[in-house]
Specification:
9 helices; homopentamer; 0% strand; YneE/VCCN1/2-like (chains A, B, C, D, E); transmembrane helix (chains A, B, C, D, E); mainly alpha; transmembrane (chains A, B, C, D, E)
């Protein structure tokens, strides 16, 4: 998540230089074709880039809207994880009567929940990140690693511990369903995150947009070169840049769990939950919040 | 679901060649009509295709938005099935106390749930796919096949087994309602899938869009042929192609349960749930995940 | 709900002939006014129909979006009725222990629910349709007919029978709340259907749209007749037809419970539920599904 | 809520005459300024009103969409009140066992709920309407009037009576939570209504729209007067009228609880609930439904 | 929240004067560049600002829609806090049987909830506002201040008191879950508020919009100066102002918890809840409602 208001030129160029080169080459091609071939035969009607502009505007707008929706939905899902993690810990801490064994189970479950979040984060970011192991007991860890889906396996463990509290009569049915409800919500949120990560945004939209922007830039340059001459190469690229940067902008949001500056700051969110939960358990040595990198973004 | 970023030309041509031929023929007709008839009487005002372009842009935008919404809703429904299937299995496994008979019921219910998913998938794809039988007991199967709606009949069986656990006191009321809640959600999700499958997207929209695109291509060619001559046939087709491919693109999403590359990858999702549930039951021989076809798409 | 891909010309003409005549007359008027009056004084600027086109595009788009939303919401509400009807029957059948009196109550409640659906359908379609009587006992029927709102009265009856099961100890509190929850949902869905039926889409939108399309057609014809002469009458009508048919198209969806080809196929949906519920009760003589009329549409 | 399809000219003029006069004066000013000042120095480029038109189209579209959403949300909230009021009465009537005292409490609660609706309606319409008193007992009334928020105070009374039923063992915990759930929903719906009423639609949008429409009308008249002469005054006003009436149209929906023809028909809805609830209690003398005024609208 | 219909000129100038100066300087620059450099070489095609206008219209529309959505979501979240605060107090007051100790706990919990709201408000507005301390007992306060997240710590305290009521048998499980449900909702609403506050609206959108508006103003002035001469500076600024003010307008809504006139009036809402809750507890000396500042806005 970017924190600053102005974007460095270097960042923009790094994102678009390949496309910029292709566009400048195309504009130059269009200029020369018109100057030395078309000019002697016919003039290019203005309505062609105008109509193409309409089609592109729809495409880019559509892509950006859907991309932003995916990004905002992902943010909401993780916001929900924050809220439910706190409620989960609060319920465990106040519902389970004090006592050595009980305290241990509660502590184990809250710590295991932090492990759940770290395992889920690592999976969404497609990284191998063993930080979750820190919050798991050795036996848990071995059971969990038999599963393809680690975070789902952790939830199963939570459910078993909760059942233990219920069967031994430490919590009654009413309290049981409220804590179990949180496990169901975690299952929903983890599945929703996986859905956003695993569903490819329909390729046809992003592919056709690229083709149509290219068509637009070429016909646009053909048309304006009739009035502007060689300056049309610069103008063609500039207008093309407006469309291309908008499109790239949207496509950066479409996979919100990627580990880049446009993504959801999972590191920061997970750490916030970690601190909240540890403090609720009365721990005083909590890790520091995630700080921005270069004062520019958080991950 | 397409996985690659670039779409093969062959795929595009396969999808649009008929429309392309019609458009080229129409553009040629328009060119000759203007050249040999209209040219001697009047000029065609540019405002006609411009205004038509606005109408078409609305239509295509509207169709694409609604189509994408159907597709994304379908994806969410099946995402919900993933989440609730895991919670269903997790609850059964941890709520029901161990014991020979109990273990058998739990196992039967989880396996029957996999059968439910396969039966629902076959129905949504309008295929006869007997894979669901594998996860059913013989007696279940015979009862179920008396019904028009197989997956609904399977849910009724689940409900009976759940009631058995409840009546024999293996699970208390609190646990009972939480498992039953999952059956209600499955009923909702199966009904939502059927709704998307069975509701025809209002034909008038797709039909009128086709008519208006054709009108646009013809009047557009009439107008630009005044400046471009015979080249207007090519340009008319090209701009028409932009609109047509966008429209076809959207219409490919409108029936997201079809067994094609644009649809929801039900095979992949069902298999994921199958693996998760089998592993949660402790089975080690799980089927492999669904792999992409040609590295291009999954079904 | 239309099932076919192409719409018969006869259907389109039947829907729009009055408007077509008005438009042709207006275009002719505009042509003659310009030819014999305006032409000698000033030319009509192209920007007038262009700007009007923008306003109309907004209006028609807005109307269509809201109309589609009403239609799709109506479809979702009845989809919800399908899902909850099945869950309601499933819960009753599995929760209530077998026994002569119990079986009778369960059967009565499920049949009364089918009556509820038929009574609601008749009300939404503003027809007198006594089919619901078939599924009611005589005493029920007499009580119910004292009420203005028949379907609400049926729900009250359901609630009384459910209370009977609860008070006699046949179902415990947990099962009770789950069945009662379904009655609450039916109450919601019936109220949502009534809301869509009884709320007139703001008249000002549809009225002003008609006025503005007329203004557009007239000024458009004024402008193009400067270049096209008498052919402008045809073109003016054609472009007007594009807008008018889009607008009429949307307005056909705005009242989705009307008994016409654009509406929600309540007959088909109700019958589907009827068959499902009868089969769940083990009845073998179920009525046939609703079949399309002329292979063209279902109601 | 307007019921008719055509809007009387008198109603439109009544709504817009002030703005119409301002626009005609502005168009005349623009005409004379161009004719006697600008004409000798430069011509006004068409692109100016075109670009302004785009900005206005966005603004008006945005305002109308948000206004309609507020209106439709308000309608949904009151639709929810209809549904939950019926469920509330149904639950009370069937859950509470018959008996003199019980019957009295049930009757008192249902009547008090009607008072709640009337008190809420009066508050939303900012009127003093003492009809709610009719359905309250004297002692209730005195307690309630100590509060700033009458309807919230009524809910507190309901909660106390419900607790009375619970504490005396007339209803068990399961039935208790279902009735209490309805009170929570009423609290939600009343708060949602207050939110819509009390949140001013951001003034900046409506204010800037007015300014930009005025700018548009002036520059539009400047441009078309170059071709149309004095007729531009009429045309400028006409196009301005199209935008202004659309904007006013939307702003009429933005406060849906106002007591005007565009608002939600709270009188009608409240009366419908009143009749339903009285009939459910077996009363036969129910007040008549609200009838349309002049066959034109209901309030 | 602004309450008046017309915005003072001074407020607009205060918000935009920097941008206005930049725009006027850019327009002057464009005018002179065209007059003394470009005019001798080529003419600038009108299509350039037209196409840029389309891109900008999309950007500004997108930004405004998302900004309004954030603002309205924030308003809904706090509306939900109003509703649930009332239900929370109502439930506590009617569920807990009278008695000295009980009354004290109930009073403490309701007062602590008011503290929760004030602490949350101070956090969202990034101010140090110790008003919440007034409603807390000394011991609570010391525990709470050990946490980074004060409002989360307050919820933990509430949960402990609720558990106390439950464990001592003052409220049964049914009542317990209903009050606890409210704590879960408060946790959700507080997390949702934090999400809106802490998620930076993607910087790329607001940054690129600024760049593109500037490009538009410059090319627009280049084009119209061909017809209007020096007046183009004024017109370029005016049209630029239309876009800029719209953009700034939207960006004022994007952080709805800021303590400015465009934000959600948290002071007013919190005070409303405070008054409602105190009156429900029977207190007669309630603080006055928040009054508008200058009759212009509330905070």
């Amino acid at each position: 998540m970017l924190l600053i208001n102005n974007i460095r030129l270097s960042r923009i160029i790094r994102n678009t230089w390949q496309v910029d080169l292709i566009m400048i080459a195309s504009c130059m091609g269009a200029y020369f074709v018109r100057e030395y071939l078309i000019a002697y035969h016919f003039s290019v009607p203005t309505i062609i880039p105008t109509v193409l502009g309409t089609a592109i505007a729809f495409f880019i707008g559509f892509n950006n809207n859907q991309a932003y929706d995916r990004w905002w939905e992902a943010r909401k899902v993780w916001g929900g994880l924050v809220n439910d993690s706190r409620s989960f810990a609060r319920n465990l801490l106040s519902f389970v009567p004090p006592g050595d064994e009980n305290d241990e189970i509660v502590k184990r479950m809250i710590r295991r929940h932090i492990a759940f979040l770290y395992a889920l984060k690592a999976n969404l970011r497609s990284t191998v990140d063993l930080i979750y192991v820190k919050y798991l007991e050795e036996s848990d860890r071995m059971d969990i690693e038999k599963h393809n889906n680690l975070h789902n396996a952790i939830l199963l463990k939570q459910s078993e511990d909760l059942e233990r509290l219920s069967r031994s009569g430490q919590i009654d049915g009413f309290k049981f369903i409220q804590i179990n409800e949180m496990l169901v919500r975690f299952s929903d949120q983890m599945g929703m995150s996986e859905r956003i990560k695993n569903t490819v945004f329909p390729t046809t939209y992003s592919y056709l947009t690229k083709v149509f922007i290219w068509l637009f830039v070429v016909t646009f340059t053909l048309v304006i070169s009739q009035e502007m001459g060689v300056w049309s190469i610069f103008m063609g690229w500039m207008i093309g840049f407006v469309f291309v940067s908008t499109q790239i902008n949207g496509m950066n949001l479409v996979d919100p769990f990627e580990n880049n500056v446009a993504g959801i700051p999972l590191n920061q969110i997970t750490r916030t939950i970690e601190i909240n939960l540890l403090q609720m358990m009365g721990e005083e040595n909590t890790p520091p919040p995630v700080t921005p990198i270069n004062d520019e973004y958080v991950l």
